[in-house]
Amino acid sequence: MARRRGERGAVSFVDIAVNLTSPAFDRDRPEVVARALSSGVASLVVTGSSLADSAKALALAGEYAGCAATAGVHPHNAKDWDGEASAGLLCALASGSDSGKAVAIGECGLDYNRNFSPRGAQLGCFEAQLKLAAKLGLPAFLHERDAFGDFHSVLKKHRPELPGAVVHCFTGGERELEAYLELDCHIGITGWICDERRGAHLIPLAGRIPADRLLLETDAPYLIPRNMPKALRTKSGRNEPSFLVHVAAFVAGILGKSVERLAAETSANAARLFSLPPSA
């Protein structure tokens, strides 16, 4: 586990995906952030998943030290995208307010696993957000599930105009990984890799991610790391950003690196991609 800041040899992580707006954190959000900071997670990127949710994410980023936020519309919410009207609202949100500017456009992409929004609506919403990211000079924070063909096609078309992109919560296979790396994307790894039931295939792939492209995330409150001692897990099974240290320990073991080195590399990657302040 990461030592606390201020101790000799302390490490500092960036959790690039925290759904801090989730109702799961309504009862103890300040304590959740405090636990993250004290555990060595020095910076949290709060995920925006709809226009309203993005506004909340940016507000939280302005309220809590060490927090930044993305602004975007998740494919589940693509059915609510209203063309130029939604694009204008998202542009205004992402461009800055009293709560600050978004560090990325997203979470955006395609999800054909659940199809909560029609596929046509997802495609239109996704492409519009990539165009907006290029216009604003912001990286894209991406979601893909069971939609690789269409997702890759749209992303490849717009990737040259984007300053950066991260495929968040990567759960794909070798083919998908190589395709994303060819597009110079960052790869976000969550506690999915710690799940022996469905994430074991990621273990041999982790070593194929270049050190300067790897990012770590919890995607809290989802995907609690199953390598955590049961005594440390929350009774509800809720994941927290402070648990990122368990994901990091697992990944460091796979890569044959110290946790300190992995923390330094992934935090530097996140700071460059999202233009985070040096304190991150």
Give the C-level CATH assignment.
Alpha Beta
Task: Tell me the strand percentage band.
Answer: 5-15%
Radius of gyration: 17 Å
Range of helix content: 25-40%
Query: What is the rounded distance between the termini?
Result: 19 Å
Count every helix, treating DSSP H or I runs of 4 or more residues as helices.
9
State the low-pLDDT regions, or none.
1-9
Q: What's the arrangement of secondary structure elements?
A:
Layout: E1 13-18, H1 29-39, E2 41-46, H2 51-63, E3 67-69, H3 83-95, E4 105-111, H4 119-136, E5 140-145, H5 148-158, E6 165-167, H6 174-182, E7 186-189, H7 202-206, E8 214-216, H8 244-255, H9 259-274
Parallel strand pairs: 1-2, 2-3, 4-5, 5-6, 6-7, 7-8
Task: Write up what this structure looks like.
The chain is α/β, with parallel strands linked by helices. The chain has a single domain (13-274), classed as Alpha-Beta Barrel (TIM Barrel). 39% of the residues lie in helices and 14% in strands. The protein has nine helices and eight strands. It has helices spanning 29-39, 51-63, 83-95, 119-136, 148-158, 174-182, 202-206, 244-255, 259-274, and strands at residues 13-18, 41-46, 67-69, 105-111, 140-145, 165-167, 186-189, 214-216. A five-stranded parallel sheet has the order 4-5-6-7-8. Helix 5 links the parallel strand 5 (140-145) and strand 6. Helix 2 packs parallel to helix 3, helix 3 packs parallel to helix 4 and helix 8 crosses helix 9 (259-274). The longest helix has 18 residues, at 119-136. It is globular and about 50 Å long. The relative contact order is 0.15. Residues 1-9 have low confidence and may be disordered.
